[in-house]
Design goal:
Elements lengths: L1 H17 L5 H16 L36 H4 L3 H36 L5 H27 L8 H6 L11 H25 L5 H28 L5 H23 L3 H6 L4 H10 L1 H9 L2 H9 L5 H9 L15 H7 L1
GO molecular function: oxidoreductase activity
Organism: Mycobacterium yunnanensis
InterPro entries: AurF/CmlI (IPR025859), Ferritin-like_SF (IPR009078), RNR-like (IPR012348)
Length: about 350
């Protein structure tokens, strides 16, 4: 009887936490985001002219050479390679980043549907989650088409993450807060890297430039929702739950960042890249460590504002080598990083 009563209390508390209609500011934000998805959205097969001559992938195209904002692209070993080798490495690298992106967004889509399944009637979160799921489906189509056009048989996510990924979306229902922090751990590094590439102004292949521009435009809404969701719910957690969450966040940021940013073993074997070069690129040199820290300025801002930056948490951020100052506002450019790269 006591067990049944406790279970009933948990279910009631869970349902109450998912009822957001009494928060006018939050529901208005969700309405704005949802209407933005209606007014401005992209279709990968109508907004990208894949068969246009300018989108053709041809041998020897130097626009595939990795930009200086890429940790591999700015390394002396890569810059010392012949142009053809740089192009080959660049194409493989960009194709695998796209493949990792579609793998990650596949997990997000399933998590969105799992979370939406439990939302009450009239919930504005239901509508937003479905809009985002549609956009992420289009992103996976776009990324896969990019991989197909490049022609590199890339593996995407690390093997271990592929084995555990079926279970990750199931967390979105009973434990949505850790799930959304995990989503930010995947979205923030990709978004940060793509924005830096576009800001650098280097001539990119039209496929890569168009795919990045579309992804950055729509990802702004997705990241905005994750931040708003966590801003609303994290402060309402008990002190004990906030403490454990504060230790979880830097760890999940570091682990998923490495899974997304660091190429798989097949890459290093394919191009016979020395182990010493790999270690220096990810993340031994001062420049690469700064790049790693810069990726999570917005997350550090979120943690500071929601009470997740206690002394022990700060130590974990430092141990994970992603500590640093918080952004003053979301998507604040890391200007010092860009200057040092130039």
């Amino acid at each position: 009887m006591a067990t049944k009563t406790a279970r009933t209390r948990i279910i009631r508390r869970w349902r109450k936490n998912m009822d957001v209609l009494d928060d006018t500011a939050y529901t208005e934000t969700l309405r704005t985001l949802s209407e933005g998805s209606v007014r401005r959205n992209f279709n990968p097969f109508t907004d990208i002219d894949w068969d246009s001559p300018e989108f053709a992938v041809t041998p020897g195209d130097e626009r595939w050479i990795l930009p200086a904002t890429d940790p591999i692209g700015k390394h002396a070993w890569y810059r010392s390679q012949p142009k053809d080798r740089q192009i080959e490495i660049g194409m493989w690298r960009q194709a695998n980043v796209a493949k990792v992106g579609l793998h990650f967004e596949s997990i997000l889509i399933r998590g969105l549907m799992e979370y939406a399944f439990w939302t009450p009637n009239n919930s504005p979160e239901y509508r937003y989650c479905l809009h985002e799921a549609v956009e992420e489906c289009n992103h996976t189509l776009m990324f896969q088409e990019m991989v197909n056009r490049i022609g590199a048989d890339v593996p995407g996510m690390p093997t271990m993450l592929k084995w555990v990924q079926p279970f990750i979306p199931l967390v979105a229902g009973p434990m949505p807060i850790p799930f959304w922090f995990g989503i930010l751990a995947g979205e923030e590094p990709i978004d940060h890297t793509q924005k830096n590439v576009l800001r650098e102004g280097k001539a990119l292949h039209p496929i890569m430039e168009r795919v990045m521009a579309i992804h950055v435009a729509e990802e702004a809404r997705h990241i905005s929702f994750a931040h708003e969701y966590l801003h609303k719910r994290v402060p309402n957690l008990s002190r004990a739950k906030r403490f454990w969450l504060s230790l979880y966040v830097p760890v999940v940021m570091r682990v998923l960042c490495s899974a997304i940013i660091v190429p798989p073993r097949a890459f290093w074997n394919e191009f016979d890249i020395p182990r010493s070069v790999r270690k220096e690129i990810f993340f031994k040199s001062p420049e690469s460590r700064k790049m790693l820290r810069d990726m999570f300025g917005d997350v550090r801002m979120l943690c500071t504002e929601t009470g997740l930056m206690n002394p022990l948490a700060k130590l974990i951020w430092r141990i994970c080598r992603i500590n640093g100052g918080a952004s003053r506002y979301r998507s604040e450019p890391q200007r010092q990083h860009l200057v040092s790269v130039a």
